[in-house]
Amino acid sequence: MKPCCGSAPTRFAGVIVLVLGMSQRRERGWLVWVDMVLLAALLISAQRYFAIGEMLETGLYFFTSTDIWIGVAGIIVLLELTRRAFGIPLVVVCVLTLLYALMGQSLPWIFQHGGYGLDQIMQVVWYSFDGVFGGPLSVVVTLILVFIVFGSVLEAVGAGPVLLKFAFALTGRFRGGPAHAAIAASGVFGTMSGSVSGNVVGTGVMTIPMIVKRGFPPRYAGGVEAAASSGGQFMPPIMGAVAFIMSDVTGIPYLTICTAALLPALFYYASLFVSVHTEAIRRGIKPIPRADRPVIVRHDWIMSLCFILPLALMMTILLSGRSPALAGFWAVIAAVVLGFVLNPELRREPQRLIAGLVDGGKASASIIIAVASIGIVIGVMNMTGLGLRFAGVMQAVAGESLFLSLVMMMLGSLVLGMGMPTVPAYLIVILVMGPAIEMMGVPTVIAHLFVVYFGVLSSITPPVAIAAFAAAPIARANPIHIGIDACRIALIGFVIPFVLVYNPSLSLVADFTVSGLLWIILRLSIVIWLFSTGFAGYAADRLPMPMRLLRFAVGFGMLFPVLWVEVAFTLAGLAMTAMDWRASHRPDADDDEGGEAVATPLSPDAENA
């Protein structure tokens, strides 16, 4: 039973980050003593893991009852860390998993297994490569943490505000204005962040109030930020750390995964832009007047190098075949050097960099805790074989229907991913449901991207929509309403995974053909327009309900995987799009340039539509 891969110092680094995460507790009095006891228990249990690991590498080792109880203490501390960092939901999942391992022999149906004692469970969950200190934790410590620090350093050296200013300047001429800027900024920052809620808060504190000021309702402003921030988790090059975990799980090269994820992510963000644009037209919101748009000055162009050059350096190192960790390391160094050279404010206040590193440490501690806790689930799943049995049941229920299997997997992903960060959500779902979809002949990279999409979108799906709850205090709106609007804005995100399965050319790496790629790009572009205008109820003019329903029907028909159906509905979609374009270019049509921002009052029914 081999312990986690990597050197002892590398594994110890993960424990140190756990300790740092635990030390964030601010209470005083007797609670400090509780923390001291928990810290001591964590250090003892980690030290025992390392010692046993060394023994297992050199020969056999027979576990003692002391080893088992030390492992139990480590699990208890880990669960408490998880509660502090993420609340109750993830703790409940871990506890139920452990109870399942202990008492599964008494359960019916596919949940029944041969039964395991506490000693067997601890050997797998705490001391083996399949548990807490398993492969995912090793990937996080050796690859992912440096990119989280990179994002924090960029913010500290002053690149974040400048990038946000560029986003506002570039999107000011569009009706959506700040909403489009929020989408662009959240996409950039979200790819480097391992936390959807952290991204919502980080960019939303500036973008949400400005979106509301332009005339959008608070709930819609929160929905835009939640949908955009969530999408960063499947936007290359970093994909919120999921790309590295996926590469480790599947054995597929990191750059191949990024390539496969690129076009679907771009279409997702394009759909957000179109959705905001049609909503702005519906509400009569005009573009930001030229006089009020941010002006990019020489200092902004210079400061943009703090982001552009490190990112270019990182991609160059990756393309040369070197490790992502090395690329991230040099990107961090380049960002720090450029920050001191180009930003006089950082030279006057170098403590900003220390504060950025502290933020990066806190974010790193959170993701370490999340992945370590999911190690409990991974260990039990591998020990009991539940994932494979569940895959067999799914295949039996769905029969030969790939679509039904995908729908079941979508629902399972949305449910299992609710209330959890992206990385643990992905790991849980792919363990339970991944084998089923691969049995249907879906390429491995596409099957995993399918899971990632719905694991991420669970963060905006009510009732447990963590991105919506993060945006609610800023928008001062009901989180459930924000989640509903976020799902409406991100509708195409729920469609793209199915499109990817039936049109693998969109991934650029699986069953690729140029004709297949061009055909799906044409259809998906039209579908985005039809769905966005159908939801908004407005294209060049207001759309009656029958016409809105017709647009959805035509859009889904264009994606139906039968060639003659695709061709017929695509012709209909092209005709609708052409009519919209001609109507929008009438002499009396609104001009998107200039003018004051005026929101046309809507009736209460239209406001809530």
UniProtKB/TrEMBL annotation:
<feature type="transmembrane region" description="Helical">
    <location>
        <begin position="295"/>
        <end position="319"/>
    </location>
</feature>
<feature type="transmembrane region" description="Helical">
    <location>
        <begin position="30"/>
        <end position="52"/>
    </location>
</feature>
<dbReference type="InterPro" id="IPR011853">
    <property type="entry name" value="TRAP_DctM-Dct_fused"/>
</dbReference>
<feature type="transmembrane region" description="Helical">
    <location>
        <begin position="486"/>
        <end position="505"/>
    </location>
</feature>
<feature type="transmembrane region" description="Helical">
    <location>
        <begin position="401"/>
        <end position="418"/>
    </location>
</feature>
<feature type="transmembrane region" description="Helical">
    <location>
        <begin position="517"/>
        <end position="540"/>
    </location>
</feature>
<feature type="transmembrane region" description="Helical">
    <location>
        <begin position="552"/>
        <end position="576"/>
    </location>
</feature>
<feature type="transmembrane region" description="Helical">
    <location>
        <begin position="452"/>
        <end position="474"/>
    </location>
</feature>
<keyword id="KW-1133">Transmembrane helix</keyword>
<keyword id="KW-0813">Transport</keyword>
<dbReference type="GO" id="GO:0022857">
    <property type="term" value="F:transmembrane transporter activity"/>
</dbReference>
<feature type="domain" description="TRAP C4-dicarboxylate transport system permease DctM subunit">
    <location>
        <begin position="75"/>
        <end position="510"/>
    </location>
</feature>
<dbReference type="Pfam" id="PF06808">
    <property type="entry name" value="DctM"/>
</dbReference>
<feature type="transmembrane region" description="Helical">
    <location>
        <begin position="363"/>
        <end position="381"/>
    </location>
</feature>
<keyword id="KW-0472">Membrane</keyword>
<feature type="transmembrane region" description="Helical">
    <location>
        <begin position="325"/>
        <end position="342"/>
    </location>
</feature>
<feature type="transmembrane region" description="Helical">
    <location>
        <begin position="58"/>
        <end position="79"/>
    </location>
</feature>
<dbReference type="GO" id="GO:0005886">
    <property type="term" value="C:plasma membrane"/>
</dbReference>
<feature type="transmembrane region" description="Helical">
    <location>
        <begin position="86"/>
        <end position="111"/>
    </location>
</feature>
<keyword id="KW-1003">Cell membrane</keyword>
<feature type="region of interest" description="Disordered">
    <location>
        <begin position="586"/>
        <end position="609"/>
    </location>
</feature>
<keyword id="KW-0997">Cell inner membrane</keyword>
<feature type="transmembrane region" description="Helical">
    <location>
        <begin position="425"/>
        <end position="446"/>
    </location>
</feature>
<keyword id="KW-0812">Transmembrane</keyword>
<feature type="transmembrane region" description="Helical">
    <location>
        <begin position="252"/>
        <end position="274"/>
    </location>
</feature>
<feature type="transmembrane region" description="Helical">
    <location>
        <begin position="131"/>
        <end position="154"/>
    </location>
</feature>
<dbReference type="InterPro" id="IPR010656">
    <property type="entry name" value="DctM"/>
</dbReference>
<comment type="function">
    <text>Part of the tripartite ATP-independent periplasmic (TRAP) transport system.</text>
</comment>
<protein>
    <recommendedName>
        <fullName>TRAP C4-dicarboxylate transport system permease DctM subunit domain-containing protein</fullName>
    </recommendedName>
</protein>
